From TrEMBL:
Fe cation binds at residues 88, 130, 134. This is Peptide deformylase. One of its GO terms (biological process) is translation. It holds the Pfam family Pep_deformylase. Binds 1 Fe(2+) ion. SUPFAM superfamilies: Peptide deformylase. Removes the formyl group from the N-terminal Met of newly synthesized proteins. Requires at least a dipeptide for an efficient rate of reaction. N-terminal L-methionine is a prerequisite for activity but the enzyme has broad specificity at other positions. Its cofactor is Fe(2+). Belongs to the polypeptide deformylase family.
Length: 162
């Protein structure tokens, strides 16, 4: 197990859709261990595999003291609406109000190939959508209103040069 370095925008791995996990190998087991250890830090709600440089469909989460993971998650259902602050480990220091569904449900598998369903509202719903977006090659900045997205990108350009 290892705490892995977080990839930061504009790293291309963050914009590349992740591959489905077809076989549970020792490398996939190590990936899950690293995801769980890396997300186990105060203030971290979720972490996708591509955020640590691995283009496989997996993420870990740390919500209300519950830490877990899911492989090959598929966003099945969303409903309702929330509009609140959202941040991202791959976009450090920036928090913007982001529109998301309030409730979300994802379906995937565990390391034994057994089906898992994760669902929730509020922060859990936001995290499920945020992490599946990552696995599809999107970051939360893509969901911002046009003016906020422009301001965020400008901030990132200005601070990357320093």
């Amino acid at each position: 197990m290892a705490i892995r370095e977080i990839r930061i925008v504009p790293d291309p791995v963050l914009r590349t859709p992740c591959d489905e996990i077809r076989e549970i190998t020792p490398a996939v087991r190590r990936l899950v261990d690293d995801l769980l250890e890396t997300v186990n830090d105060p203030g971290r709600a979720g972490l996708s595999a591509n955020q640590i440089g691995v283009s496989l469909r997996a993420f870990s989460y740390n919500i209300d003291g519950k830490i877990g993971y899911i492989l090959n998650p598929v966003l099945e259902e969303t409903r309702g609406e929330q509009y609140g602050d959202e941040g991202c480990l791959s976009v450090p220091g920036l928090w913007y109000k982001t529109r998301r569904a309030d409730y979300a449900r994802v379906r995937g598998i565990d390391l034994n190939g057994k089906e898992i369903v994760l669902e929730g509202s509020g922060l859990m719903g936001r995290m499920l959508q945020h992490e599946t977006d990552h696995l599809d090659g999107h970051v939360y900045l893509d969901r911002l209103e046009k003016a906020e997205r422009r301001a965020a990108l400008k901030y990132m350009r200005e601070h990357a040069a320093k």
